[in-house]
Specification:
about 170 residues; mainly alpha; about 0% strand
Length: about 170
């Protein structure tokens, strides 16, 4: 499903990290917003707490929609993966999109599918595209594995009790 928007395929101007920062800024702004009932100055109407709340609700809805779209695209990816090699073009485009848009880390099934697709005969340009995606996906999976192993080692180190032996 290709949903081109001014903000790319994911449909939002903000990524997950940006939404988190924006929500924190809104929370601070609500606390700092002047009370319109006690403010006697007449400059342009400052945003009210209601304005900030409405903006927060709109951002929350956009974030929710992004999660729904991500879930749909991941289901679509799995569906096309099971129908390979007949869906190679759509599968590769979907995989590229979810990796770029959602920081998706390709699974072992994705890597196996990419290896198979890279071995199938096709034009030189498509062959290069498939091999490049396989390399990129392999690196992403490898880095994710290293992060998980590092986190486990840290957690294990933190939970180990110091030895009382002399």
């Amino acid at each position: 499903m290709d949903m081109p928007t001014p903000h790319g395929h994911h449909g939002l101007a903000f990524g997950t990290r940006e939404v988190t920062v924006l929500r924190r800024a809104l929370a601070l702004a609500v606390k700092a917003a002047p009370d319109p009932d006690t403010d006697t100055s007449e400059p342009p109407r400052p945003p009210t707490a209601l304005d900030f709340w409405l903006l927060d609700q709109a951002i929350a809805e956009a974030e929710s929609e992004r999660h729904r779209l991500r879930a749909f695209e991941l289901a679509e990816l799995a569906h096309h993966r099971t129908a390979l090699p007949g869906t190679a073009t759509t599968y590769l485009a979907t995989l590229e999109r979810v990796v770029a848009s959602y920081d998706y880390v390709p699974t072992a099934e994705d890597l196996a599918a990419l290896r198979t697709l890279a071995e199938l005969p096709c034009g030189a340009t498509e062959q290069a595209r498939r091999r490049a995606l396989l390399r990129r996906s392999g690196l992403l999976a490898e880095h994710a594995m290293e992060r998980r192993l590092t986190e486990r080692a840290r957690a294990r180190h933190l939970t180990e009790a110091p030895s009382d032996a002399p």
